Amino acid sequence: SSPRPVPAPPASGVHEALAPQGAAPAPIDALSRAALRELDRRLFAYVRRRVPGDEIAREIVQKTWVAAVAGQARFSGRSSVSTWVHGILRRKLADHYRERREERALLEDELVVPARQGDTFDARQRLQRVASALEALPMRERRAVEGCVLEMGERTELAEELGVNTGHLRCLLFRGRARLRAA
Q1: Which pLDDT does position 108 carry in this prediction?
Q2: Three-class SS of residue 1?
Q3: Which residues of the chain are under the pLDDT cut of 70?
Q4: What is the per-residue pLDDT for 45?
Q5: Could you tell me if residue 23 is left (phi over 0), alpha (psi between -120 and 50 degrees) or otherwise beta?
Q6: What is residue 149's DSSP assignment?
Q7: Each residue of 98-115: pLDDT tens digit?
Q8: Which stretches of the chain are DSSP H helices?
Q9: Phi-psi region of 153 (alpha: psi -120 to 50; beta: other; left: phi over 0)
Q10: HEC letters along 81-103
Q11: CB 28, CB 69: distance < 8 Å
Q12: Quick one: 47 exposed, middle or buried, by C-beta within 10 A (0-12, 13-18, 19+)?
């Protein structure tokens, strides 16, 4: 049996096919492909100036587009589509920073036990164990933990320094953190 042909998407846009009959076209569908590409380029440039790597910037822009497409029905038309999408982008960027701050706080809690009254000796001992464990890590894992966690450096630069891609850097960081937790 031969495969059934896939129907072509509507000429005016995918999202219009999902809209109720008689509804106004979705704001993103109203833009030309060239305008969408230009807006995407501007969104990426805006985010790229504010985050440490292309990968993270692409992820934030992608989340922005997903939110914009999902929320088109709420677009009131009081501003341009570009202004509306940039507003979504700024909120996604704030979410990214918030998540990153929470990750750092969790990691700091794992690496250093805060000293409470009467616990300073225990905290000092734990800090010494972590420092010793850090020294015992394989060189690349140690450098990944030092660069990303302690120095809060840019991951793309650190990956280049270590001669690995950012995905491999994440693996090194994961392994290093796991060994520190076990110490």
Answers
A1: 62
A2: coil
A3: 1-25, 103-123, 150-153
A4: 93
A5: beta
A6: I
A7: 887 776 666 666 555 454
A8: 14-18, 33-48, 54-70, 81-111, 120-136, 139-145, 155-162, 166-182
A9: beta
A10: HHHHHHHHHHHHHHHHHHHHHHH
A11: yes
A12: buried
Give CA 173 to chain center in angstroms. 16
Stated length of the chain:
183
Which tokens is 176 given? Answer: 């290093």
The helix/strand/coil state of 26 is coil
Burial classification of residue 11, based on how many CB atoms lie within 10 Å of its CB (0-12 exposed, 13-18 middle, 19 or more buried): exposed
Cβ neighbours, 10 Å, residue 148: 22
Token duo for residue 107: 């990691």
| pTM recorded for the entire structure | 0.47
DSSP character string of 46-57: HHHTTSS-HHHH
How far is 165 from 149, CA to CA, in rounded Å? 18
Torsion of CA 84, 90, 92, 94, to 10 degrees: -150
Q: CA 30 to CA 10: how far, in whole Å?
A: 13
For the chain, the farthest-separated pair of C-alpha atoms sits apart, in whole angstroms, at: 78
